[in-house]
Amino acid sequence: MAQDKADGIAGLVDRYGGDPGMLIPIMQDVQADCGYLPQAELKELAGRLHVPRAQISSVATFYSSFRLMPKGDHTIQL
Q1: Distance CA 12, CA 45 (A)
Q2: pTM over 0.90
């Protein structure tokens, strides 16, 4: 199962030409596939793009559209 995830990340990176400048669109695709940004996928992404994990984490926490945890069963809006 972990190899499938790694292959999925590799496919995404290849689709964007391995360009670290495409980090946000790649992260959006990962979130679309998983529903959030799992740490294992972010680690794999950092390795494949040759960027520090801290950079990926800072992008993930800066933009409110990214989720680092899966959504809960109930959504409350005020």
Answers
A1: 9
A2: no
